[in-house]
Amino acid sequence: MVKKYIILFTFLLPVMLLHAQTQHWDVGYGNHIKESVKTEGNDTARIDLLFTLVNYYLDRNIVTDNKKNLDSALTVAQKALTLSMQIGDGNRKNESTRLMGSVYLVAGDSVASHKCIEQVLNYFKSRQQYPQMVNACIKYARAGNRASFHNLSIQFYERALSIATTHHLGDNEIQIKSFLVFEKGAMGQMEAAMTDAFKIVNQYKKSGRSLGMVYCLIATTYRYRGDLKTALNYGLASVHDVELHHDSLVENGAYAELALIYDVLGETEKSVFFYRKTLAARLKKPRKEEFIYRTLGFIAKDLIKLGRAKEALKEVQEFQKAHPPQSASGEAFCYQNLAYCYEALKDYTRAESYYLNLLKSPVAKVSDEIGTLAYYDVINFYLLQNRHKLAQYYALKVGSRNTSLDNIRNYENLCYKIDSALGNYKSALYHYGKSQQAKDSLLNQSKIHEISELQLKYETVQKEKDISLLKKDSQLQRDRATQANHIRNITFACIGLLSLVLVFLYKLLVDNKQKADEIDQKNASLNRLIAEKDGFIDEKEWLLKEIHHRVKNNLQIVIGLLQRQSSYIDNEVALNAIQNSENRMYAIALIHQKLYLSESFDRINMQEYIDDLITHVKDCTDTGGQVIFDKNLDRIYLNVSQAVPLGLILNEATTNAIKHACPANSAAKIHIWFRQTPDHYNQLIVKDNGNGFDKDFDFTAIQSMGINLMRGLSKQLGGTFQITQDNGVVIEVKFKTEEFTRAEY
User: 341, exposed or middle or buried, with CB in 10 Å at 0-12, 13-18, 19+?
Assistant: First the structure.
């Protein structure tokens, strides 16, 4: 069980503990910085560019897993150090040393890195710069996490906490304590981690600070204990805090945990929704490609469960085209995801080809959890194809690796199935027994384990007697084997027919049952979470939130229907119309999603809403990464009757700007402002830098559906709508409301 926790935190920690400061890691950006270093004449500016280049190589190392990037990072850091010493700049010399320490640590040289960090801390200490000391300890601890030096990370987090406490620097206290909890989890110290987590919750739950990271740890632990109800409560609490406080440091971990919980609960639609949010969050920062493509694989497998294998294949192919793998592990998981899809589509030749490419990759050659699972996928594939000899070949090749109990159980169960199919009954019984032992150990119930072991011994003796009798009469053995095959085939056929009937009945009943279950579950989880904060929740508010939730779900169904319809349309005009309708439905659905997830059931935080909507529009439009959005958004709250038309106007304006105003194969910029004017008007401006219209063009003559829609919605707001030209097209909407609120920080 401890191994499972270590594996889990190895998966979660690197994607949760990266600093919120994002660095570019594409090759073009790196080349641009290199050229800037060559041409920069000012020494201090050149040193700062060298710092940027070091961080570029560190980020590049995460994505590509190529150690040459660390060599380059160290060389650049040494150049920065030399230049800093030449001009006598102590602060930049210190920063150069800190970066060298991080590079050494990620490269595995803890001795050299420790020497660097001590120089940095002594520099800050001599100047009594204690906040800088705390930040340096935190950055070094995170670098330790990247290099799997978890003991060292714990040491420096504790050091940062000690300095912060001694000098009354409380701003970082909760963050440092949260990091400590996760490092203990990564070390397998789950009891200590859980104890500390609940202490943090009790101490800070009324502080107004985000507890998303701590709630995520608690949810993870309860999920592994099998207490899914409690896990769901804390998973929802984690996402709530992350979205409330815009905690980008934790968002992908919180979304990932909630997706996993819904996956185990069998709520596959919700699981897909949160896996997609996880994937979007993980693309914002540099991280190992295996985390990106494994998340994509979870989405594909869940879509396959829902009977949407074609959609899964399309999503996998489009994602891999937009984000081609840059590392061996990334390429391996691409093979795995494609194999899942083609297997589900019964294209077994292609599926087998991708599975075999997966086994040739470095991922499968490592005897860890992920490499072992790659072999298990291939063995299962051949078992389903009734190609038992090949399944046996790969089972013998991978062996029972020293991995988690769950995988040992899976391995023994696979061997049991293979031997049963091949008639190796004695070996099958042996593997069946080993599978049961692993299952009992996994459940950690000693009494059940003892009873099962005694029962297993009894069944083994009885079946060995049967086997000895069968050996005395080989003809009888063949007859019985033939009969068993006939019975098995008939049973499978009956099960198939019965499954079709059950699926038909299930589709008739699923809506009512799902809604009833969802209401019960939401009621329980909301009562628990909200009771911690307020003690109770007004029944009317809860009902209104539930209405918003149902409206959002119904709109998601409409979006899904439109998406399915689009796959059958060849006419480009009709396809564009349906895709535009999808985006409009999403703009409305996002309003209701924000309402039922927010503390207030009648007002929308338009700053968050516009940010999420623009991200969606950009993801749904093939921009090729050429469009830059410049957003200037006040934190303004509007009710739903105003937020819906404003969201539709913004969707139309940005979509039109991307499609018509952005020149092909060149950078385009779209400015979006939403602010309160001095005369208390709400002002939305969308401006692009495209070619615009002809000089004498009459804007009032435009009669397209999108423009007419924006005009009508502006009237619905009681405001004005205006199109002008200023080095591109400018769309402006102004309206005034009686209730106008700007959030206070």
Answer: buried
User: pLDDT tens digits for 560-587?
Assistant: 666 666 666 767 767 677 767 777 677 6
Helix count (H) and strand count (E) of the chain?
Answer: 30, 8
Element (H, E) at 285: none
d(CA 527, CA 233) in angstroms, rounded, equals: 10
Count of C-beta atoms within a 10 Å radius of residue 727: 11
Q: Is the CB of residue 646 less than 8 Å from the CB of residue 709?
A: no
- How does pLDDT run across 221-276, given as a tens digit for each residue? 888 777 888 889 988 988 998 888 888 888 888 899 899 888 888 889 999 999 99
The pTM of the full predicted model, rounded to 2 decimals, is 0.52
Residue 638 contacts residue 606 (beta carbons within 8 Å) = yes
For 93, residues 6+ apart whose C-beta sits below 8 A from its C-beta are 81, 84, 85
Assess contact for 552 and 593: CB atoms under 8 A: yes
> Out of 141-145, 152-156, 179-183, 545-549, which region has the weakest mean confidence (pLDDT)?
545-549
C-beta of residue 55 within 8 angstroms of C-beta of residue 64: no
Distance CA 1, CA 164 (A): 35
Q: How far apart are CA 102 and CA 147, in angstroms?
A: 10
For the CA atoms of 388, 394, 399, 402, what is the dihedral angle to 10 degrees? -120
